[in-house]
Amino acid sequence: MNNAYFTRALVTLLQREGLYSNDPKDRGGETAFGISKVKNPKAWKNGRPTLEDAKVFYWDEFWFPLRAGNFFSEVGAELFDSGVNAGRSRASKWLQKAYNLTRPEKWKPLKVDGKIGPKTQSAVNRLCGRRSWREALVVAMNGYQFMHYAKQNDHHHIRGWLSKRVGGYGT
Question: What parts of the chain have a pLDDT lower than 50?
Fold first, then answer.
């Protein structure tokens, strides 16, 4: 678990998720370090998760399965954040769709299957060799996450999601 990209992405995630919450408007119920007691009861089997528990949980459940460390840091961090907030398969599909939207037309599109394998890694990293294309890919992925929340028609949570990503929003 010695990956500097993971540590930076985890710090950002924990800043967004907070240390503890029990918001009655949140379907996830009680959360510690963003880990929902309702959705992840195994992580709570010994009581409220600690910071060390959270590190292991996020590595094992999201960072490693998504192969987030195999991408440019911004892309890996966005894939990780999307996976935590909307599920690994959905986040993987968003990455593939974002690639297909931002790639040069002459490049072959990726199959949108939600699987992060060598083809997805190679194609995305080739695209991300240019900083502006990498930034466009991350913006596109954020757009998919935004639309995911918008479809849920959950004004309370979409405002919270935006306020943690857009400086000054909601203040």
Answer: 1, 171
